[in-house]
Amino acid sequence: MDSVVEALQQKLGKGAVLTKEPMSGHTTFRTGGPADIFIMPHCVEDVKESIHILQNYEIPFLVIGNGSNLLVSDKGIRGAVIQIGGRMAKISMDGEYIHAEGGILLAALAAKAGEHALSGLEFASGIPGTLGGAITMNAGAYGGEMKDVLVSVEVLTKDFQQKTILVEDLDLSYRHSILPKEGYILLKATLKLQHGSQDAIKARMAELGEQRREKQPLQYPSAGSTFKRPEGYFAGKLIQDAGLKGKSIGGAQVSEKHAGFVINTGKATTQDILDLIAFCQKTVLEKFGVPLETEVKIVGEL
């Protein structure tokens, strides 16, 4: 492991490659054990170099954004994590078009659009992930989805080619795109918005922010909605109707404010969260015959 770390640090710089890095600092759940190697690239070439070196040493790797939809095991992640985050967050404007790198936070992108009186990203102003993560799972809220504003993406393919894919070829649907299945790493995206009133855009963002604060347990670490919406139902209502609001296992709790959220009340382990998720799934299936599928992605050594 020392030789691969040395090779990575020689290419990217020592500050860009960490070892035994606690993943609790890189997920919004604030849980998770250490990643053997944690890489923070500055540019596309850094991403390519990192993957080349990892493959040469036969080290498995996982690409993440802001960790807002991740639940990392308490034992952590064997191999490497490549975080496309704040070091890859450049943005440029061209009329109604925005060109942005995948590491920019969605909230920052929505705010920048608002500053330029561009409307269409208001729904995303409170989503805590990166642009790359949001497109990968076609994130959405309050009636908007990424597919509504996306024009195209630039990805890195498994054979190190940079490829542009139009939105219609991404198979974007509810919390789904082709990117994970194809092993594509999102590098950049182009969005198309509409010119609007800066005041109206700010007002809409403020209104949605207020709705979030009223209805969601934002003061606690979580990954947002824990479960996908089952067809014909709402996960939160099923969990509430099953009598599970406030149910706790260890430091994990079904939020008393919104039953669709499993939260970390302060000292939860990932295992607490996993056990509570499994308990909710089992109870809802037994009571209502509806299977609940997690929206959060579970990774690491179990």
Description:
This protein has 302 residues and is of the alpha+beta class. The chain has three domains: 2-83, 2-Layer Sandwich (Uridine Diphospho-n-acetylenolpyruvylglucosamine Reductase, domain 2), CATH 3.30.43.10; 91-215, Uridine Diphospho-n-acetylenolpyruvylglucosamine Reductase, domain 3; 235-299, UDP-N-acetylenolpyruvoylglucosamine reductase, C-terminal domain (Uridine Diphospho-n-acetylenolpyruvylglucosamine Reductase, domain 1, Alpha-Beta Complex). It contains eight helices and 18 strands. The protein has helices at 2-12, 44-56, 106-115, 131-136, 179-182, 198-215, 235-241, 270-288; strands spanning 17-22, 34-39, 61-64, 70-72, 77-83, 91-94, 97-101, 118-119, 140-141, 144-145, 150-156, 162-166, 185-192, 194-195, 248-249, 252-254, 262-264, 297-299. The strands form six sheets. Strands 6-7-13-11-12 form a five-stranded antiparallel β-sheet. The protein has a four-stranded mixed β-sheet with strand order 1-2-5-3. The chain has a three-stranded antiparallel β-sheet with strand order 15-16-17. Helix 1 (2-12) runs antiparallel to helix 2 (44-56). The chain is globular.
